[in-house]
Structures are given as structure tokens and as C-alpha cells.
Amino acid sequence: MRSVHKTVLLNETIDGLNLSSLDKKDNVLILDATFGGGGHSIEILKRYPNVKIIALDQDKGAWEKAKDKFKGLEKRISFINKNFRDIDQIFQKENLKDSYAFTQGGIRTGNQHDALNLSNYLFDGIIFDLGLSSDQLENSGRGFSFMKNEPLLMTMKENPLPEDLTAMDIINGWSEKSLADIIYGYGEERFSRRIAKAIIEARKLNSIENTEDLVKVISDSVPASYRRQRLHFATRTFQALRIAVNDELGVLEKGLEAGLRVLKKGGRISVISFHSLEDRIVKRFFKDKKDKEEVILINKKPIIANEEEIINNPRSRSSKLRILEKII
Ligand SMILES: C[S@@+](CC[C@H](N)C(=O)[O-])C[C@H]1O[C@@H](n2cnc3c(N)ncnc32)[C@H](O)[C@@H]1O
Whole domain around residue 176: which residue ranges? Predict the structure, then answer.
């Protein structure tokens, strides 16, 4: 199946990297830390012939779905199926040299490298476009959407290992307090306690394994007026579980720190977040690095989608783009 993801803040994110200022340089290197449907990557490759990209995604299926877009451009992009939390380890010299340099695109398997000089392993720009892609939400079969009946996995990884945490593990194993805490903390759900209590009661009878089971438990536990609101009553609980399963806030902090370490002086990072918890982490990280005089902030206020984009792609409604430049 092909990628159906619509890229958010496409021009703003790419323009933010200021790649036109590097058009006289050879081998400008960009890290797309969240490849998804490849929307940002493909546009950068088309606009800037001197750019090569290393793309990460923890979902292996992302490359499979998007690779057709890159026909003829494969020598300029290399996809690595890894979590951006591990940027430090991925770009250690010894790992990079053998595994990830460019030949013909696709997933690198080892002993393949060409003339690109990656001697200092630093990037001219990095993109983090956080959260889920529409492909994952709509077609992964992993239980991200409450609109479909699917097993409650919620792992961004395509094939979770037995030791990987899933939403099913959390729902059927965690204590009432822990459930209430994540539903409140990561979902900002005001009925978190009622929902947690209802989950505990329901799982005494049968384990909760599918999205439909969970939606019913939530529906039975919240007030009727809440069920009639515009925002679907399960949205916040589903968001909370997904954040917990993938440790999204923890990996964001690690990824930003590591990203700044592998960024060149003068290089830029564009980060798109989709909810207030993510944006708070990005904002705090940017401020901290600015106070330490390691970076300057390109935009004081986050850039948001314009009306036209919101109409064409409602997912962009909550997006916020922040951009920094490294100065030391
Ligand atoms: C919003 S989509 C990116 C869309 C992409 N920019 C485009 O325009 O097509 C986010 C992607 O990042 C991936 N992702 C999220 N967190 C990640 C992480 N910690 N490490 C690696 N990939 C991650 C998801 O699997 C998903 O495919």
C-alpha cells in the first residue's frame, strides 16, 4: 500500500532550514529524523540538487510505502529503520561507515558506501515531524484509531517484539492509579479516574484486546454530554496510551539533545509538534539552549498552519513549528 500521508507545514519547515544559503556547497547533508511518508525528504531532494538525506523511521513500513516517490533519487537518500532516540549510537563512526552510506537507496544492509565524505558525521539540517503518520493511523492495523476495530498494540514499530510494551499490556496490566495518571498526564483527560476505574472493572471479566472493547469501556464511563462533544470522547485516552507505549516524550528529549550534538555549527533544526505536551518539551529545550548561548531561535513564536492548509489537511490544525540555529 502506498503512503497517503499529507505533509504538514511543508514549505515552512524546509524554508526554515535555510538551504538556499548552502547552494554553492557540495554534499549538504540533512537528517530527516521522522521520514513517515517521505514528504519533507522528497521535496528537499527535488529543490536542492546538492543535498543528500539520511532518513530515520522506527516504522520499517514507512520506507516500503514511500519508496516509489524516490525513483531516480535513490542515490541521494538512505533510510535507516531506527528510533531517533538512538541518534548518538546510529551516527557513531564505526556504525555509519559500514552500514548507512549511500548506494542505491532503500534499507542499508552493510558494507555499502560511496564517495560521500561523511568524515565528521555532522548535519547541515535536521527535521523532526513528530507523532504518527496518516499511514499509521489509517492503515497500520495496530490500533491507533478508535474508528476501526483493531488489536490494541499502538507501537510505532511495525513488528513489535514480545518484550516491547503494547497498549494491551498497559490496559490489562497496570494499576488503576497508573492508568489514571497516564490518561490524565498524557491525554489531559478530565475523566481519567472514571475511565481508569472502568478499565479495571471491565478487565476483571475479560481482557481488553481491541479498540472496540476499549471504546465501549470509555463510552460507558463518561457522562452522556461528554459523548456528544465535537472531540470524540476516546481521543484523549487513545493519545495517552500511544504516548506511553512509545515513550514519546522521553524519546523527544533524548532525540533533540542528540540531534543538536550531530548538527554542524550554523545548521538548523525544524521541529513540528502536534500537542501541548510535545510543544512544551520543544519550547523548554530551545529556551535552555538559547540561555546557554548554544543556539539562536529563528522564530520567537511557533509557526502554525494557515487557513488554506487547515482546510486541505485538518491534521495540520494543531501543528506548531519551531526552528533553531546552532551557533557554537
Ligand atoms: C508525522 S510522520 C512524518 C511525516 C513526514 N514528515 C512526511 O511529510 O511524510 C511521523 C513519522 O515519524 C516516525 N516516528 C515518530 N517517532 C519516532 C522516533 N522516536 N524515531 C523514529 N521515527 C519516529 C513515525 O513512525 C512516523 O512515520
Answer: 157-245
